[in-house]
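Fold Annotation — chain and its backbone
Next Lines — sequence and tokenised fold

***
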Amino acid sequence: MNRIGIRAHDIGKMSCESLSEKVKSLGFDGVQLVFKKAIDTEVDFNDINLIKKHFTNPMIMMLGAYFNPVHPDPKIVTQGIDYFKKHLDIAFSLNAKYVGTETGSLMGSPWGYVKENHEQKALDDVIEVVKDLVGVAEKKHSYIAIEGAYAHVAYSPKRVKEILDKVSSPNLKVTIDLFNYLHIGNYQQRMEIFEESLKLLKNDIVIYHFKDFIVKDNQLIQVGLGQGLMDYPKIIQRIQEVTPDAYLIFEGVTGDDIEKSLTYIKKIMEGK
């Protein structure tokens, strides 16, 4: 059965105890936890007992350790790899199923679109980084969830599939964020892109990021779930058919939209 989570820092930045209680009070099963953005004290990777205490219920669905594996500054890449590996070290102990990242951009910071992102060399470079990370994941009994996005190196479901095929590890899984694949030129084909994701990646999809959007001034603007163009009744139907155990994580849903969005999604899931 699909369980519902939220990116923790979309609720706020606070103590482990306060954050855990807030997540439970809202009615979520778990969180996507990015330490630096969600917890108001620095996390000591050698002492994770406090996190473990407060995030058994709600569970940690993913540790967010997002970094740019193709940043033009090699020092920044190395720092990102090392930080990601720290998360892989503790994930099993925290019962955190996945450690997540995207595939980055040659722009550096911010991770915007440049045409070189979509060239084969950039993908090959990402694959080499992921192979290194997977080696650690396998030893530490942890799992990586990799996420594509149009502006990044893995700009389509096919590019994500190529990473999976070339890395070839049971410890590499996939996060599908449909909104991330969209831009003003393709958003009307969003369900075709979603179905392609299911077809190519279904055996490895473990997380879906739930977002909604409207089109304004020729841009895609994120809104609360059920307030935009995403066909969530159809999307959830297909998720339940194809990946009934995947986690559904709200991302970028904030403020008053959190409770409204959760009510909306739960009603769909309950067939109401």
Summary: The chain has one domain: 3-269. The chain is about 40% helix and 20% strand. Residues 3-269 form a domain with the TIM Barrel fold (CATH 3.20.20.150).
